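Input (structure):
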């Protein structure tokens, strides 16, 4: 077994305890991502004021906080979209500096943005293979792409009847599922989702949450940003709360509830 497989076995294996679920985040394991003293300014605005955060393999970390707290900025730093002004990032114990999103993707960090980055006028299969189309000579190999696309969706139990439907014709939940399936198909170590359920109907939210649980069960570290606090209790192992560019609290899911989170988000002091 490689070190990574061992880590994953601990995180998702049956019967073995995932320390992150028991409030002792990590329990001595190497974090998949370790952020230390991350700072980011936009002009005179201090969007991040020295954030420390660890994310472990196979866990879902909920990242919450009021508007402008710095959640998207922090995850954009993890995904290479922004370069921090100060601080360090370690990936599986190794120091990394991402020069841009492509660099972070090469290190298996995927982010599903709120606008999803799907192409409306291309069909489902085309979106799943966007930028890595399968070709046969000078032509697109549609047959292979369709059968591979079906396998990608089946693996995550995503039900979309027609892979030749244009993405523009799909529901918000189906679009969200395609964006997640696409990101998951790059074999991510870290999958970041910024507000994946904010625009969805009840049944669609359920589908996306169970999709997150399935991705997590494969050993991927998931970071979920959401204002829908009730969703956190369905998928997260831990929650980190941001307030005005600072991480003000961390909780294992078992030691918090809605009331506690709301207090932390609006800025009542963490007295624990
Ligand atoms: N590219 C940018 N240029 C200038 N300011 C920015 C930029 N991106 C973010 N900011 C500012 O940084 C602060 C943090 O923004 P960020 O988007 O990280 O907040 P957030 O926690 O994701 O909020 P929301 O819940 O509203 O999405 C805000 O004051 C925002 O205006
Ligand atoms: Mg945001």
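Output (sequence):
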């Amino acid at each position: 077994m490689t070190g990574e497989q061992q880590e994953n076995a601990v995180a998702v294996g049956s019967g073995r305890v995932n320390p992150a679920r028991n409030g002792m985040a990590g329990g001595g394991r190497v974090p998949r991502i370790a952020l230390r003293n991350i700072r980011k300014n936009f002009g005179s605005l201090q969007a991040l004021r020295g954030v420390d955060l660890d994310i472990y393999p196979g866990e879902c970390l909920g990242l919450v906080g009021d508007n402008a707290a710095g959640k998207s900025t922090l995850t954009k730093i993890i995904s290479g979209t922004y370069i921090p002004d100060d601080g360090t990032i370690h990936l599986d114990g190794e120091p990394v500096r991402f020069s841009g999103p492509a660099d972070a993707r090469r290190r298996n960090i995927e982010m599903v943005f709120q606008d999803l980055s799907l192409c409306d006028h291309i069909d489902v299969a085309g979106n799943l293979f966007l930028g890595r189309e399968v070709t046969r000579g000078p032509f697109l190999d549609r047959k292979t792409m369709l059968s591979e696309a079906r396998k990608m969706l089946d693996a995550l139990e995503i039900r979309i009847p027609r892979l030749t439907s244009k993405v523009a014709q799909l529901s918000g939940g189906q679009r969200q599922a395609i964006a997640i399936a696409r990101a998951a198909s790059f074999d991510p170590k870290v999958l970041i989702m910024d507000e994946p359920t904010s625009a969805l109907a009840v049944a669609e939210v359920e589908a996306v949450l169970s999709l997150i649980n399935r991705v997590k069960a494969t050993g991927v570290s998931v970071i979920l940003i959401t204002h829908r606090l009730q969703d956190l209790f369905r998928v997260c192992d831990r929650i980190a709360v941001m307030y005005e560019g600072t991480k003000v609290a961390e909780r294992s899911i078992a030691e918090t509830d809605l009331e506690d989170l709301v207090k932390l988000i609006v800025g009542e002091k963490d007295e624990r």
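Notes: DSSP finds nine helices and twelve strands in the chain. The first strand starts at residue 33 and ends at 42.
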